[in-house]
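Worked example

This section walks through a single chain of length 289. The input is the sequence exactly as stored; nothing has been trimmed or padded.
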Amino acid sequence: MRTESDHDRNDESDIWGRIQSAAKALPQVRILHFIQKLNDAIQLYRHLHDLYGLYGKPRFAAGIDTDLSEYRMFLRSDLPEEDYRQANIQFKKEWKKQTLERIAKYEYQILNQGLVLMCTILDAFLDSTYCSVISANEMALQVELSSYSQGGNKDLENCTRDEQIASLTKKFSWRGIDKKIAAFERCGLDGTKIFSFWGSSEEIQKKFHSWGQSRLEDLYSQRHDVVHRDELPIRQIDELVDIYDYFCQLVIYVGYESSCNMKTATDLGVLFASQSLYKQERKRDGEGA
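Given that input, the structure is written out below as tokens.
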């Protein structure tokens, strides 16, 4: 049998559900969502780094001693057995040497994969925010369509608005970080304010005073070197923590400038507005009862 309190809880759940459904339909900059993602990344890689320090360099039996037996199908069928034996000895020796060299660098691999993941998360945030900006602001959309058509591109002229936004966002996601910042500035965001961190603590402002956009571009260049050149530029966990702090500030200020200049909703603003609307709905239902 349902009680009155059960009825009240169901009403509350229904009101909150309707508000949240409406909120999710709004184009919005997801500040909290991506800061949580960055936090997940730094916690994961700090944990892996701590485990590496705790247990020392790992020793794996599997994978170190490997021979050519599984790959013999790729060799000439008429290869003399003695030639195969000598080739196998050399292969095993070189394989073990290279594997042990890679294991010795695992600490740096951990740190640099952390850089790769955090750059990927920041990219996802910028892509999502760009989509929200041109969805919520018609002037920004027209500016971007005009910029795109200046290169002689006419393929979006007969597309629907939704198709234009989807296409522009996809093209935005392919750009380098410098081109992404330039696109935001075309849309009306102040790049100087984005990198000033003007509302943060004095410690944060002092810490990142000299970083700016050039440092962001350097970090993305390092990410490219990690992925494509097997370089390992990040050597200390403190470096990765600084990058995490820097990226969190960028998420906050890109989100803030988007909401102020582009009139784009943020998940923070929607959260506060939802709470206020919920109270109003509860009060209105109470008065009507």
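What to look for: The chain has twelve helices and two strands.
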